[in-house]
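job 3f2a | input accepted
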Amino acid sequence: MRRVYNSRPLNRRELLGLLLAIPASLRSAARAAPPAALRVLRAKTGRVESVPLEEYVAAVLPAEIGRRAPAAALEAQATAARSYAVARPGRHAEEGADLCDATHCQVYAGLASATSETRAACATTRGLVLAQKGRVIAAPFHAVCGGRTARPRDVWDDEENPDLEPVEDDACRDASGFAWRHGIRRNEIPALGATLGFPEARFLEVFSRDGTGRVSAVRLAARGGGTRTVRGFDFRKSASELWGWGSVRSTAFEIAESRTEYLLTGYGTGHGAGLCQAGAIARARRGESATEILSLYYRGAEVRLLDTIS
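job 3f2a | predicted structure (310 res):
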């Protein structure tokens, strides 16, 4: 481990601070090889583009966190987006690509979408990734956590998910999408059930919650007594496909039943794991650095230079 002059070991936050302080030109010169190119599937045309990693990250940032995000938030997002891209090679191997340009992977609108600010954020963080147990992680991120982030393994059942600790976060409280409500009329339940393989459904209820309080399972019931239990993630996905992504914004919700509908009252927008983009923006605006932002949202991982990971 690297040490300072008094021989005290550097902690993770100090090491990240030093890495971010190294001029981009020096970090670039120290790399053993230039960044690899990514094969990006353009969903609308089916065409596959070969894009240098750093140019890809700069072009992803505007669509993912916005063109006007403060520098520290852009730098944190750049590190996360770079990590995700490196950790998910061949996700679209059947189409001859690594990643697609949609929300299934990361939103990419072409190299022309990069701005001077996003290019600067990439230059500042060039080569930095998030790692765990010696491997680059597919660093998750989302729009608004609603007050507390989720544990990735509670959201997805992919064994490659990083083991990140959920954290309390009040920074996104004033963001659009922090609190939401959505009513599901009783006569809409069969259509919802049909998308989940249970068209007989007439009733619904929260079946279980994970350790952060998010809905991990929803139970659908039929009049004859039959039931089907589905993951909270799948319930939200089906509801969003039926009524739009602004309907059931997250799995952090309560259900209140009335004679005519089920009213969902919830917090946050997105899956909730990893970096909260609204929180990162708010924290950057109040003076927090990319180091501090990453240390909070990716607790359990560390920032490394890509070429130091075998």
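job 3f2a | The chain has two domains: 12-155+274-308, 179-267.
job 3f2a | closed
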